[in-house]
Amino acid sequence: MKALTETNFNFANQKSVYHGKVRDVYNIGDDKIVMVATDRISAFDTVLPKGIPFKGQVLNQIAAKFLDACQDICPNWKLATPDPMVTVGLKCEGFRVEMIIRSILTGSAWREYKNGCRELCGVKLPDGMRENERFPEPIITPTTKADEGHDMNISKEEIIAQGIVSKEDYEVMEDYTRKIFARGQEIAAKHGLILVDTKYEFGKRDGKVYLIDEIHTPDSSRYFYADGYEEKFEAGEPQKQLSKEFVRQWLIEHDFMNEPGQVLPEITDEYAESVSDRYIELYEHITGETFTKEETDEDIAARIEKNISAWLAEN
User: Fold this and answer.
1) Residue 189 and residue 53: Cα distance in Å, rounded?
2) Does the N-terminal or the C-terminal CB of the chain have fewer CB atoms within 10 Å?
3) Per-residue pLDDT band at 315 (split at 50, 70, 90)
């Protein structure tokens, strides 16, 4: 199975390109951006050495569906999806924070809580909570957005005091975050899932706050199966989940958390295919639709370049 791990396009009116951990972002004429969801996969701030077939298509198509489903809540950057792995949208000036919202104590928050932490990003946490326990209401735990290395936890008060985001813009982002998350939870519940936690990124354009980047994908979100959640929680058993957390757990089991001296384990073709299957499973659960693999005889990069160029020529 083929996987797209790099792109090097040169489109008409292209001003620059940014190669992120997973996405390649092309700046077109300073007004539009072309975001290519590659098949690269990252964990612990490290890009793994092998791509995951169809991962980019899964991420892009889930994000496109959720952006469309939240248009009535706030404006977003999406204009079109000219290829299953591509979204074209409006260029916005991104805020230097990520808005993380959590409804259940799990993942990194649980790891910190277990080690004695009782305040996360300025949010006080009660004693006596257990792993995978619901918060009374979702909490927002923002992080700074780092170009390289780890994003750092930060509180609302610090963000405003340091002038990273104005009080007015932060409160708009906070309101949008809660409303978009509630919509995501509603949609997930219809398909037998719990949207546990996720992250959103926002930017500004013409004085308005826009939702940007992807939303509600397995790279930015964690889903539990609703069926059996309570029973597993009461029994202290691990939850059945659909997210990238299973990749992190696999790396932890192979003694890798991107700490000094640790070596990345080998990613076999078989393991890459099993990860691909998990991503497709999430797509079908969260959308309620059968995933159609975009398989063509031509090279994936050539197909993407052709589809983007055709869209840009018409728009």
Assistant:
1) 28
2) C
3) very high
